[in-house]
Amino acid sequence: MANSGGGVIVYGVDENQKAATARVDTGELSEVHERTLFSVAVSAITPPVFGLEVIRLGDSPHAVAVIVPASVDGPHLIYRGEYFGAPGRNSADTVWMKERQVDAAYRARFDEQRRSTEALESLYADAASGRDTDRRAWLIAVAHPRVPGVLARPSRDDARGVFGEASRISLTYANRNGVHPLDNLDLSNPRPGLRRWTAPPASTHKSAYWKQAWASVHHDGSVSLAVAIGAHPSGPSSQFEGHEVEARAVESAIADFTGLVRANADALGHSEYEVSVGVEWSGAHALKVLTVDGTGYTYDGVSTPLGQFMRVSLTLDAAAANQAFHRQVYQLAEDCINQGGITHLHVISVPAEEP
Description:
The chain has about 350 residues and is an alpha+beta fold. The protein has two domains: about 1-80, no CATH class; about 125-340, no CATH class. It contains five helices and 19 strands. It has helices at about 30-45, 100-130, 155-170, 245-270, 320-340; strands spanning about 5-10, 15, 20-25, 55, 65-70, 80, 85, 85-90, 95, 140-145, 190-195, 195-200, 215-220, 225-230, 245, 270-280, 290, 300, 310-315. Helix 3 (about 155-170) packs across helix 4 (about 245-270). The longest helix has 30 residues, at about 100-130. It starts with 6 loop residues before the first strand and ends in a 17-residue tail after the last helix.
C-alpha cells in the first residue's frame, strides 16, 4: 500500500468475493501486538514505512484498523535472502512491480525530493526577504510537508485556532525564561496573504520594535516564522548589539515554531516535514550567541564568534507522540545553539529518555 499511495488495512472482517460479510473478533490489541505492527513496518521494509496509525475499533467484537500513509520514499522493497522485490497493490491483489514500474517509482522519489527542496528554499527566501539584517540578527524558520496534500482554504477562525494551539503546545516543553514570538503577535486577528494566514506584530510602537516577529501558516501545510533576535534589551538602560543573540531567544523561537508546525499539521492532516532554521546577519561584526551564568545573567565567556550561521535542516515528524516530538524539538534547538559554543538549553526542557 505504501507503494500505491497509501491505504487502510482492517483486521476483524470476514469477506466473500471482496465484499465484507461479517465481523470477526480479533481479540484484544495488546501493546506487544501494536509494537510488532510498527516494528514490521520499520525493520522488514526498505526504506522503512513511517507514520502508521493503529486504531482500535469496538470491543465486542474487537477490530483493528491500520492506516498506511502515502509515501514519497518509494519503491519500498522486501528482501528474501539475496533477492528483493517491490510489492504493489492492484485492487484486491498484491503483485510484484515490474522493472519499468520500479524505475518510475525511483524517478518519482527523486523528483519529489527536488520539488520539496525547492519549495523549502522558496519559503526561506520569502520569510527572510526585507529584514534589516544589517542592523540586527533575524531567526528564520520554515517547514514544508514531505507529502503534498490537497490545497485547503482554512478560514480565519481555523487559523486563529492553529495559532492558539501552537502557543499551548510550545509551553508543554518550554518555559517562559525567554522571549516567545507568539506572545508578541496578534494571534486573534490573522491577516490573509498569498495562500496563507499571517499573524502580525501585536504592537507597532517603537518600544516593541526589538521583539518584532511574523508568523504564517500556509494553506498547503507549510509554516514560516521570522523573528528579530539581535539587539534585545539587556538592562534598564542598555541593549545588546545587533550581532549579539541570546540563546534563550533562539530556544523560545524554535519552541514556538515547532508548536506551529505541530498545530498546523494536526489541523490539515500532515505528518513529516522538512525543516530549515537559520540566523540571518549581514553586519560587520561576527555573530555571537550568549548564554547565562549560574545567577541567570547574560554571559559571553564561552561564546564562539560566527562568521556565518549554518542553517540547520532535519525531517520533523509532527505526528509523533508527545515525548518523541519533544526529543526532536530539543535536538533542533541544540543544533542551533551549539554552533555558538553553547552547550546547555535553558528554555526547552530535557526530554525524558526512551523506555
